[in-house]
């Protein structure tokens, strides 16, 4: 119960409260923290074409090397977590069809000015984002039930156990 409402109910009912109990209730509720939620990158998804592309510079091996790298990486995570863009039914990143991977690359290019040398890095990063998204003890409301059931069944197969 909300600490304010708890105190208010006690006062309205004329109940003498045990201050230790009330303090304990308040301290227990402070321990429960809610997170900030998943990154949505609204500033990037909502960018208009007239604002231009976000410039990304990369080093000699195709990795972004400026402040925009974090934004790029977080944005890639939002793409992988979007069930309308990327279904969770693939057993590994290597089995994702090339056309879907190319679609992911095109989505990135609509928001960021990426050099072609960065494509390898971005595909590796998408693979990592996918592995992070498919953790076993995790069920998010944004994951379609059928996709989650499929991947759970796959993880229980001998083939998946051999790979991991």
TrEMBL record:
It comes from the Eukaryota. Residues 12-42 are annotated as: Disordered. Residues 13-23 have a biased composition (Acidic residues). This is Uncharacterized protein. It comes from Penstemon smallii.
């Amino acid at each position: 119960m909300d600490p304010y409402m708890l105190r208010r109910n006690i006062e309205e009912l004329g109940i003498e409260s045990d201050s230790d109990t009330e303090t304990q209730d308040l301290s227990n509720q402070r321990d429960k923290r809610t997170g900030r939620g998943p990154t949505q990158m609204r500033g990037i998804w909502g960018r208009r074409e007239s604002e231009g592309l976000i410039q990304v510079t990369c080093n000699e091996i195709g990795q972004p090397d400026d402040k925009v790298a974090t934004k790029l990486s977080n944005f890639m995570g939002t793409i992988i977590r979007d069930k309308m863009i990327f279904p969770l039914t693939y057993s590994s990143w290597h089995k994702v069809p090339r056309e879907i991977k190319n679609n992911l690359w095109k989505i990135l290019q609509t928001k960021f000015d990426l050099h072609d040398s960065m494509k390898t890095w971005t595909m590796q990063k998408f693979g990592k984002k996918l592995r992070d998204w498919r953790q076993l003890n995790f069920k998010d409301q944004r994951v379609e039930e059928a996709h989650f059931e499929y991947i759970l069944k796959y993880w229980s197969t001998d083939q998946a156990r051999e790979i991991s």
